[in-house]
Design brief:
two-stranded antiparallel ribbon; 7 helices; 19% strand; binds adenosine-5'-diphosphate
């Protein structure tokens, strides 16, 4: 029984690795194809200087996407291989949430989305790595803003629940269909791939944001979960041990 269980675990791990490699290659191929075809079309006939500038600009945009994707992949691979040195500092979660909200304040303003803070006033510190946890909250907040209609409100709340501290990010966006919800934390998973790629997210819309958030939270012994009502909005909750 032990041997079978071991084989099953190995099989699952290999399967995961295969999927990851296939997904990563697929994501890398798209910008490469664009660079290649833009170059080929440009070489077919002579162009004006302005046109050449446009062409080079398009190619550079795709190079930027490639750079961003490889950076994210490297970070994720290092992190999951346990090669990231995690700091162990006392963190005031309300302060952390304020920091993340400040960071994305301009983006929210541009999208005409209001950020409401509903934070604990007493300081209950958790132990962890500020930058890692901040990244998790920034990713959730970035998603919430991206998926909110203009004029909507995103609420960031922190509260104490028994032995755990909880941070929630609620939005009034389009929500996530129930059948897709269990997959949103998977690497490269996108609810609507076509739309994600177009929306010009700072993180590229690769379907990696929630995977990174989950890794950061779980590395702290915490838990991340999502609830959603299509048409009404979504709530993402991070629970961390005190
Ligand atoms: P991305 O970087 O492409 O946004 P994520 O891992 O952050 O990838 O999210 C995965 C998918 O979950 C996205 O395709 C997005 O459509 C969906 N999603 C994430 N957060 C929300 C939200 N607050 N409201 C609706 N859909 C969301």
């Amino acid at each position: 029984i032990v041997f079978n269980a071991l084989l099953a675990r190995l099989e699952a791990a290999f399967g995961e690795l295969r999927r990851f490699t296939a997904d990563a290659s697929h994501e890398l191929r798209t910008p490469l194809t664009v660079i290649r075809s833009v170059g080929e079309v440009a070489l077919r006939e002579p162009h004006s200087e302005t046109e050449y500038r446009d062409i080079i600009g398009t190619m550079l945009e795709e190079v930027d996407r490639l750079t961003l994707l490889t950076t994210l992949l490297l970070e994720l691979t290092r992190a999951e291989g346990g090669q990231t040195a995690m700091k162990c500092e006392a963190i005031d979660l309300s302060e952390l949430v304020r920091d993340a909200a400040g960071f994305l304040g301009v983006l929210a303003e541009e999208e005409r989305v209001r950020i409401d803070l509903d934070l604990l006033t007493t300081v209950v510190p958790v132990t962890g790595d500020w930058m890692m946890l901040r990244q998790a909250i920034v990713n959730l907040l970035d998603n919430a803003i991206k998926h909110s209609p203009p004029g909507a409100t995103v609420t960031l709340a922190s509260q104490a629940r028994g032995e755990q501290m909880e941070i929630s990010v609620s939005d009034q966006g389009e929500g996530i269909p129930a059948e897709q919800l269990p997959h949103v934390f998977d690497r490269f998973y996108r609810v609507d791939a076509a739309r994600s790629r177009q929306d010009g997210s700072v993180r590229g819309g690769f379907g990696l944001g929630l995977a990174i958030a989950r890794w950061a939270v779980e590395a702290h012994g915490g838990h991340i979960a999502a609830e959603s009502t299509p048409g009404k909005g979504s709530v993402f909750r991070i629970a961390l041990p005190r």
